């Protein structure tokens, strides 16, 4: 993935879209299509509370930075961490203009509740990888705050998580380079997608005339 311009970096937030539905990701990030629904609006309102750029506050042994821009030149992704908490620790790194050493922990805000898949964890892991590259440190833990349960969940970021993110980003770039929007297996989850009118999942469920004829020949 040899890219010279940062403008060609993929959006880190797209990882969650990609793992939810590869077609949804392609419609948004390749075809530049978007539509609002109740879920996306609620999500924007929740993030607006965390996304107050350039606000940095000290709370005892903790420094809280909101809306921190991050990027990885290795993965060629860029984005914004809702919050990065720097906790004072002898095992941490030095920060410019601040006494002591600190460990960095990304904190992501989500509208709903913990999911059955790893999409939220993968997005958090991507943030951790960006922080590792930028700060020259190791990030092995982060947090996800779920608004529906009003609770913060601690996430251990493992080497396996990091390997998965690198694999996912590689796949994303393979689609992006080809400008390829895939067809996918539809399901109940399509009803919650803001792009269902653009995607038209019902059409993908219909067999083409050619596939119907080929099926009959096989029979």
Describe it:
The chain has 219 residues and is α/β, with parallel strands linked by helices. It has 8 helices and 7 strands. The chain has helices at residues 14-20, 22-29, 38-50, 119-135, 159-178, 196-199, 201-204, 209-218; strands spanning 10-11, 56-59, 62-72, 77-95, 98-110, 141-146, 151-156. Strands 1, 2, 3, 4, 5, 6 and 7 form a 7-stranded mixed β-sheet that branches. β6 and β7 form a beta hairpin. α4 (119-135) crosses α5 (159-178). The termini are far apart. Residues 36-47 and 207-216 have low confidence and may be disordered.
Helix/strand layout:
Elements: E1 10-11, H1 14-20, H2 22-29, H3 38-50, E2 56-59, E3 62-72, E4 77-95, E5 98-110, H4 119-135, E6 141-146, E7 151-156, H5 159-178, H6 196-199, H7 201-204, H8 209-218
Parallel strand pairs: 1-4, 5-6
Antiparallel strand pairs: 2-3, 3-4, 4-5, 6-7
Helix pairs in contact: 1-2, 1-4, 4-5
Q: How large a portion of the residues is in β-strands, by DSSP E? A: 25-35%
Which regions have little confidence, pLDDT < 50, spanning 5+ residues? 36-47, 207-216
Report the helical percentage.
25-40%
Over all CA atoms, what is the radius of gyration?
20 Å
Q: What is the number of strand segments?
A: 7
User: How would a crystallographer describe the biggest sheet?
Assistant: 7 strands, mixed
Distance between the termini: 45 Å
Broad shape: globular
User: Number of helical runs?
Assistant: 8
Mean pLDDT: 82
> What class, by secondary structure content?
alpha/beta
Order of helices and strands: EHHHEEEEHEEHHHH
